[in-house]
Specification:
The chain is of the alpha+beta class. It is built from 7 helices and 19 strands. The protein has a 5-stranded antiparallel β-sheet, with helices on one face.
């Protein structure tokens, strides 16, 4: 089966390569009659597009979305929504020297062995430019789940060794878009920016962590045992380029706790049953419990760096590589809207599943 689609009820199939004609997708299963703003979709793409600051890739792309079908007079028709974003600023010549090389920690070697052919121009389909389709689908999903009062907000909580000290409950989500790294703390953001600029000037890269909070999700989403809510969420997040780890609720911290510390006790307030804490991250037994859902995604440093590295070519000969091209010194700031988009796709998909 192809791995180019996600979802059971709200489904996205994406297409395109980094240096091809366009990147796009087809969305099937969007309910009919939903007000869908193309302007909002474009706003979300603008949050992800390259060249938006000096801590991202200098590649200049407007990333203008073209809706091909499925939206008429501002509303979804219930038919497949086709869309594409044309690539206009490719510099494929930057990658000619990589035609017969395997770049360290890239998809070059594995894709070549699996398919017997690879698009070496910017990584082809393995490029994070494929995320455009996810952001468009996520922007549509966000507009649908808004009808349920559901809100999804992600933010940068770590870049390298610079860590936002606030818990998710303490963060001012209104400040996420106030700086170029999307960290909701101005002082910490400046330290993150300084670190990214430092590694960029050294020809290196740095990783980080994105936190995400999903508010107002109803009780009951999730289909145990293999389609637990957190399992579907984890699959979506780990499909994002450069993602290396996923945790929800107390995550790996739970491994060092005792049950008496970790258990979320129940209380009844005003006739509503709630938990006193939220170590579960809004999910218990694979099913949402009505509390805020929060999770974290770790991202590795970008693999393409301009420092001298050792690798081999397709003949197995040793090669010294100093990569060229236009790349992010840290993927995290531009990955924030991608995390939100994938979360929205999962939430809507499981909402529609629960309604069947």
């Amino acid at each position: 089966m192809s791995g180019n689609s996600i979802g059971k009820n709200f489904r996205l199939m994406s297409f395109g390569e980094s240096h091809g004609v366009a990147v796009g997708g087809v969305i099937d299963g969007c309910p009919a009659g939903i007000d869908l703003s193309v302007e909002y979709i474009q706003q979300e793409l603008n949050r992800r597009k390259p060249g938006q600051s000096d801590v991202s890739t200098p590649r200049k792309e407007e990333d203008e979305v073209e809706i091909l079908s499925g939206i008429f007079e501002g509303k979804s028709t219930g038919m497949p929504i086709g869309f594409m974003v044309r690539n206009k600023n490719q510099e494929s010549k930057d990658y000619n020297h990589l035609k017969d090389l395997y770049r360290p920690s890239h998809a070059d070697y594995t894709w070549d062995k699996k398919y017997g052919i690879r698009d070496y121009r910017g990584g082809g389909r393995s490029s994070a430019r494929e995320h455009i389709a996810r952001v468009v689908a996520g922007a549509i999903a966000k507009q649908v789940i808004k009808e349920y009062g559901i809100c999804i907000t992600a933010y940068t909580s770590q870049v390298g060794a610079v860590i936002l000290p606030c818990s998710p409950q303490e963060v001012d989500l209104n400040q996420v878009e106030s700086n170029i790294v999307r960290c909701p703390d101005a002082e910490v953001a400046e330290k993150m920016i300084a670190l990214i600029r430092e590694v960029r000037d050294q020809g290196d890269s740095v990783g980080g962590v994105i936190n995400c909070i999903i508010q107002n999700v109803p009780i009951g989403l999730g289909e145990p045992v293999f389609d637990r809510f957190q399992a579907r969420l984890a699959q979506a997040m780990m499909s994002i380029n450069a993602s290396k780890g996923f945790e929800y609720g107390s995550g790996f911290t739970a491994a060092s706790m005792r049950g008496s510390e970790h258990n979320d006790s129940f209380v009844c307030e005003g006739g509503e049953i709630k938990t006193t804490t939220n170590h579960s991250g809004g999910v218990q037994g694979g099913i949402t419990n009505g509390e805020e859902i929060y999770f974290r995604v770790a991202f590795k440093p970008v693999a393409t760096i301009s420092k001298l590295q050792h690798t081999v070519n397709r003949s197995g000969e040793a090669i010294e590589l100093k990569a060229h091209g236009r790349h992010d010194p840290c993927v995290v700031p531009r990955a924030v809207p991608v995390v939100e988009a994938m979360a929205a796709i999962v939430v809507l998909d499981m909402l529609l599943e629960a309604k069947k």
